[in-house]
Amino acid sequence: ETWTGIWSPWPKTPDTMSDVGGDTNLASVRSRAAETLTALEATSIPDDHWSWIRKSMFPLPTPPSPLWSPTDRTRYFDANGFLHVRAFVSPQVVEEMKNEMRRLAEELWNPGEEGKTRVFRTDEGQVEAQGSDDYFLDSADRVHFFAEKDAIDEDGKLREEFRGDKIAALNKAGHGMHVRPGAFHDYAISREVGSLVRELGWVDPVIPQSMYIFKQARVGGEVTSHQDSTFLFTEPHQTCLGLWLALDDSNLENGCLWVRPGSHREPVRRKFARNPEHFGGDRSAPKMVFENIASSENLRKVPWDGTLPDGSDPPCCDGLFQAGFVPVECKAGDLLAFPGELDHLSLPNRSGKPRHTFQLHLVEGPEAGVKWAES
Questions:
Q1: Which candidate, 264, 339, 312, places its Cα nearest to that of 123?
Q2: Which residue of 180, 214, 215, 323 shows the fewest CB atoms closer than 10 Å?
């Protein structure tokens, strides 16, 4: 197992470059990304170590503390807001997860049945699509399925081209994948996951949510700029940890993750919260809404929250770089770990290759003095 925030430029991958503007543009984006990531790696991290999860300074101990001592990986994670661990799981684990997901979808998802065809959105239609949908809101301890908006026709049915392969229409499955016995559960309680989470400084980690993201070839939608703590809000401080496991090679062609280094030090801007209008008696109002909780000054600094920065489009993605984002390409089996306040997104997948991922979200539990926000 190795890690990087950077290092070598990614290997050239065969692709259909007409989708993103040609080899020259792709090479330019990769070069800019490598320059940014290399600079992060070269930046000296002060000996006084700031722990994101513990919200305090930790001078590097000499000799190491018998309880917890930050490693080089921990220091990089806390300084920059993400950690790329290469070959975190074996190819066998990757295949087991993909096979189990296909089996679950074949057995449990029947998009022709009333109430089963739901679309998942992260754009301006998110509150309408998910804010009052019990199928979405009741999925915490089970496996529910959500389709890509471009795979559903105006009548809410699968478009004809997906009827022979319904799985190709899926956006995601969640949010209790880790609850069911099988490959996802085994991974969630694995030594590898537990060891990394402890290394990063979590004391009483619990798993409230897991999901499988398909990012399908050609119809895989964008995931707009967001902070995971918007949806997994804890008190008295934020403790969400995202573990983003690549099950396919994830690259510029098929919609890899873009992160904004250092943004994990910014406050949470929005909270997905219970709507007082609905629970006050107006049943026509959505159950859940986005509540702005940051100062107006902080909101002005990130005008793209919930959308994409202007100029994000391939092939050049200039707007993303100008806003401070950088793409992190991964091989199947690689892991990206990042705190819940990190700003991140991904672009649509218009390539001929899918980009499957399995994602765990953890938060600190009561033994760490942390609780869910009441709203």
A1: 312
A2: 180
**CATH architecture type of domain 87-372:** Sandwich (2.60)
- Domain coordinates of the chain in residue numbers? 87-372
Q: What residue type is 31 in one-letter code? A: S
Q: How many residues are recorded in the chain?
A: 375
**Residue 312, both tokens:** 């994000």
**What's the pLDDT tens digit per position in 52-76?**
998 876 655 444 445 678 899 999 9
Residue 36 has pLDDT above 60, yes or no: yes
